[in-house]
Amino acid sequence: MYSTNYHRASSLEDAVKLLGEAEDGKVVSGGMTLIPAMKTRLAAPSDLIDLRHIADLKGIKVSSRDVTIGAGTTHAEVADSKELAAVCHSFCHMASQIGDPHVRHLGTLGGSIANNDPAADYPAALLALGATVVTNTREIAAEEFFTGLFETALEDGEIVTAVKFTAPTKCGYQKFRNPASRYAMTGVFVAQGDGGVKVGVTGAGDDGVFRSSEIEAALSSNFDASALDGLTVPSGNLMSDIHASAEYRANLIVVMAKRAVKMANGA
């Protein structure tokens, strides 16, 4: 048995202070990853700092095509946002496909990206959208934030407060879901905007989420699913597990990319 001290943070400043004072503190919001890890003794923090009641970490703001989403915003709130859907419907669609209703109403965007599960949905979207992750101390480009399996650029005492991005002209997301967990065995987010075409892939990489240069190159000259006919992506950096081989995932990347492009084009 071990004991854990629970703290209900009243503000972001309070949370940072409590985290700094803890011997081995962890912040928690929805708890969809941390609590199961604690139950199985994969995590045993000395202190839990609850962020759920910090209003400044919640909400979605859309100004023209500039989007800011608070880290404490739940997946269900992202999925149901009419304001966000008006400029980036596929981001809402993606959130609506996460887990089950229980997970969507408790899990938060900030918790998901801070954990950086290799099969999570948001990381692929943030890469494709050229998003920025905002913390209590700085802003980090998504390209630099996700550093490996369950690893991010977050430093000790640093807390994700929001993500922000400019909605692209077109975007789409499709994933091949594990039928039990609903995690992405392979998920692809495609986006076409002022910065060109970007493609984020989740659920397939040995080192976690990544961008597909092969698909980006093909779609840059023709943003249509037909541009991917006959395309192959290398399987050398993809994972093999009980669910699918690296070669199968390589094929899934192309298939999901085609479906995502069709969605982006309104098909």
Automatic annotation (TrEMBL):
InterPro entries linked to this entry: CO_DH_flav_C, CO_DH_flav_C_dom_sf, Diverse_Substr_Oxidored, FAD-bd_PCMH, FAD-bd_PCMH-like_sf, FAD-bd_PCMH_sub1, FAD-bd_PCMH_sub2, Mopterin_DH_FAD-bd
* SMART domains with a match to the protein in the record: CO_deh_flav_C
Where in the numbering of this chain does the FAD-binding PCMH-type domain appear?
1-170
Superkingdom of this protein's organism: Bacteria
SUPFAM superfamilies xrefs: CO dehydrogenase flavoprotein C-terminal domain-like (SSF55447), FAD-binding/transporter-associated domain-like (SSF56176)
In its keyword annotation, does this UniProt entry include Mitochondrion? no
Q: Which Pfam families does the annotation name?
A: FAD_binding_5
Record GO terms (molecular function): FAD binding; oxidoreductase activity
* Gene3D superfamilies according to UniProt: 3.30.465.10, CO dehydrogenase flavoprotein, C-terminal domain, Uridine Diphospho-n-acetylenolpyruvylglucosamine Reductase, domain 2
Which keywords are on file for this protein? Answer: FAD, Flavoprotein, Oxidoreductase
PANTHER family associated with the record? XANTHINE DEHYDROGENASE SUBUNIT C-RELATED (PTHR42659:SF2)
Q: Can you say what this protein is called? A: Carbon monoxide dehydrogenase
In which organism is this protein found?
Aquibium oceanicum
Q: What is the organism lineage in this UniProt record?
A: Bacteria, Pseudomonadati, Pseudomonadota, Alphaproteobacteria, Hyphomicrobiales
